[in-house]
Amino acid sequence: MMYDKNTQRRLFDLSKKLLQNENIPGREEGQEESLHLHEIIRYHEWRYYILNDPVISDYEYDHLFKRLEAIEAAYPDLIMPDSPTQRVSADLTSEFPSVPHLTPMLSLANSYNAEDLKDFDESLKRVLDLPEDRELPYVVEPKFDGGTIALVYENDMLVRGATRGNGKEGEEMTANAKAMRTIPLKAEFSKFDVKKVELRGEVLMRKDDFTKVNKVREKEGKSVFANPRNAATGGLRMKDPKEIEKRKLEAFVYQLGYAVNEGGRDMLPKFKTHHDSIEVLGNLGFKVPKDGYERKRCKNIAEVADFCLKWQEYREEYPYEIDGMVVKLDDLALQEEAGYTSHHPRWAIAFKFKAKQATTRLLDVEYQVGKIGSITPVAKLEPVQLAGVTVSSVSLHNEDFITSKDLRLGDTVLVERAGDVIPYIVKAMEDLRDGTETPITFPKHCPINEAEKVPLSRVEGEAAWRCSDCTCGAQQTQQMIFHVSKSGMDIDGFGKSYIERFVEQGWLKSLADIYRLDYSAIAELEGFGKRSAENLKRAIDKAKQNPIKMVLKSLAIHHLGNRASEILAGEISHVLELRNWDEEKFTDIKDIGPILAKNVQAYFSVEKNIALLEEMESLGVNMTQTEADKKDEPITDGALSGKSILFTGTLTQMSRSEAKKMALGAGAKVSSSVSSKLDILVVGEKAGSKLKKAQELGTVDILTEEAFLQLVNGG
Ligand code: IVH
Between the CA of residue 483 and those of 105, 271, 375, 428, 590, what are the distances in Å? Predict the structure, then answer.
């Protein structure tokens, strides 16, 4: 290890401290800070490039790098020859022979929002001496997050493949390049009078292949890959080209970097625009970003910003990992004129998506009691920005999660938030431990009511510890919150904060109390008044008439969800009939499994629960089967009976919920994913990966919206 633990800890803390700095300091302070920045940037580059395991986000790294650039710009005499700003890229540490690239492989400058893009466009026009109001066309394509490669073709044959290396020299890996089916061994550049070319691209592993390959590796007892990028960059450096096939690596080509003819003349200008050059490469058999899908020619920077922001949303659905978009000036002559800095081309910029990962400190663990008594540990974190929101607490799920990740109080942890997924802890950064971290001991007694020492128990086969004999009321409070919520009795305007206030007042101890609230007392509460008390009364009275499928579900019986409640409701005429059922009678019903049967049977065999239901009934809550509870017979004579259907893309003829209703009305089952079981896929505008998958399967009927409408309307 090049850095010992204490040094790593110091550099990490220093990084987080310097990230807070904003204004440009005085010269003396600037000198001190720039030396610190040298040290920490070098450290983060080592973590990123050598270990493939960064401890700060790309965003934070860029921030530190920019800060150093800004200080150096203010005090140019502080620029040292070994400053990280003075070189192209990281060190080479390899066993492969190194080869010089035909032109240097530079980095890209970064932007993070529409404003940054506008600044880029304006400064480019200044460099090109063009009027401010002139619109510059750009091409936008994904910023692939894999391993960069350079491919050289001579006399139409692939003669060399190399990694990016330090930008000037890369590692030669021709055998690995030849093993990739997406890289043609022969391509007819001679048609364009081109003798020698160098192409740039990215080697990637599809996200779904990543999951599959990891499963296989796990079975074979091999270590699993942390992410598709590691699998790709690692694969490129393997001595055995068969590994390329095993890892299912693919290459996208996104740049024609160098092209000369027989006499050594530069042939690049021949292609006129970046768009044209990529089209040519596509026609020669390379895998290139597809025009109109992941690549777009934009007429001005506003269109560029729209496309980038759209892709920020679409990112998760795309089959490959990307960390942003790359914006390139389309006109090659103008590119040439704009030129390069030592670090990046002036004619291109990366639009970086908001970081999905960040590191922060795990400060404390709190425990929450759920509606069925499960104890959920929740990590309290030093607040950190993640994909645009501040995260300060994340669920740790259960004891096994904590043990399997060996999380400790005081740890620096890597937190991730991908798409709409709730944030979670990926791992603890072990190298940053300094010995002061302490183990997390899962409580053995109810953590809310510590004095009473109510023991927790763990049901075999389940991960959760549970408090099965709640005396403190924490569990009942959660049950009531669930009972009134949208997923329960759906009592309009009644939510968590009301429940908590009424519990505090001593008005609510059990579910039945909800139906005997004293509305005149509520009207007197601060912030309520007569009107809101009346509204609440109206909502509760209405809920009393709910069908019994809602009543059943809102009792918070473990595993009893929407569907099972509906099925059960269809079988009985009164809720209390269930007290006479044994487990077998439950499991006799199709779709009711043994675990659920056991839970429901157990609930109805507890006298306290029966008393509660009787009390609720006496307070006016409906316990008798209604029309809404009656079992829906499946439509067997509809146009789509027995078929499974899925909608994808933007529907223009109807809303999604209308479409689903129509499909259900015609007897279809609406699916959520494309698989061999899917019969019909209806595609709206801009359909993406689902359409592609269905096409690949070849067994799915692909319909336009019009065709679907005709089908269901009997046209
Ligand atoms: S163009 C001179 N286009 O991003 C042009 N780069 O900092 C420079 N990358 O590691 C590169 N997708 O491998 C370009 N569509 C794309 C890209 C892309 C990913 C990577 C590239 C390099 C980094 C550039």
Answer: 61, 66, 19, 37, 26
Q: Please give the number of the atom of ligand 1 that sits closest to the Cα of 254.
A: 15
**One CATH from 1.20.1260.10, 1.10.287.610, 3.40.50.150, 3.10.290.30 for 5-86:** 1.10.287.610
457 C-alpha to center of ligand 1: Å? 54
Give 132's contacts (C-beta < 8 A, 6+ positions apart).
122, 125
Distance 575 CA to ligand 1 centre (A): 64
pLDDT in tens, 15-28: 999 998 888 899 99
Active-site entry in 125, 143, 196, 643: 143
Angstrom CA distances, 592 to 183, 564, 642, stand at 52, 7, 22
Domain 644-712, CATH homologous superfamily name and number? BRCT domain (3.40.50.10190)
143 is catalytic: yes
pLDDT of residue 418: 67
**Are 237 and 135 within 8 A, CB to CB?**
no
- What's the whole-model pTM score? 0.57
- Residue 89's pLDDT is 41
The strand order across the sheet containing 110-111 reads: 110-111, 348-352, 322-329, 138-144, 296-298
SS3 605: coil
The pair of three-digit structure tokens given for residue 411, joined into one six-digit string: 């740890």
d(CA 513, CA 616): 8
CATH fold of 109-352 reads D-amino Acid Aminotransferase; Chain A, domain 1 (3.30.470)
Instruction: Say if domain 548-618 classifies as CATH 1.10.10.10.
Output: no
C-alpha distance across the termini of the chain, in Å: 71
Q: Count CB-CB contacts under 10 A for residue 76.
A: 7
Q: Is the CB of 106 under 6 A from ligand 1?
A: yes
Give the residue from 648, 660, 654 showing the smallest Cα distance to 693.
648
From atom 21 of ligand 1, which residue's Cα is the shortest distance away?
148
The CATH number corresponding to 357-439 among 1.10.10.10, 3.10.20.90, 2.40.50.140, 1.10.3490.10 equals 2.40.50.140
